[in-house]
Amino acid sequence: MRRRALILAAAGTLAAAVPAFAQAQQPAPDPPAKLSTCLPCHGRDGIGTSPLNPNLAGQKALYMVKQLKAFKSGERRHDQMSLIAADLTAEDMEALSDWYAAQPAGGGNP
Questions:
Q1: DSSP letters spanning the chain
Q2: What percent of the chain has pLDDT over 90?
Q3: What predicted TM-score, i.e. pTM, was given to this entire model?
Q4: Residue 56 class from Cβ within 10 Å (0-12 exposed, 13-18 middle, 19+ buried)?
Q5: Using one digit for the tens of pLDDT, what is the confidence trace for 34-69?
């Protein structure tokens, strides 16, 4: 009985680890077509280029899409971001958000 419990516990641990391993092994998305629009303020790696620009690296993609949509609709106002978001399609927003979400938080610096 004890051996069976150990086997079940090991199987449960392995089953829990598989999704995390699979997620970690996913390739990074290709740089999106409109990435150059974001580079001056958020950089290629998602680390803000000044203290006034937020870091996007490792941020949740769904959150970033929601914010871009809010800038585009006027629900959220920021002079520069509202203008930039106005020119983004839903596909652009998803591609940019996926890109920055895939970047290591902190820019990969220890």
A1: -HHHHHHHHHHHHHHHHHHHHHHHTSPPPPPPTTHHHHHHHH-TTS--SSTTSPP-TT--HHHHHHHHHHHHHTSS--HHHHHHHHT--HHHHHHHHHHHHHSPGGGG--
A2: 68
A3: 0.73
A4: buried
A5: 999 999 999 999 999 999 999 999 999 999 999 999
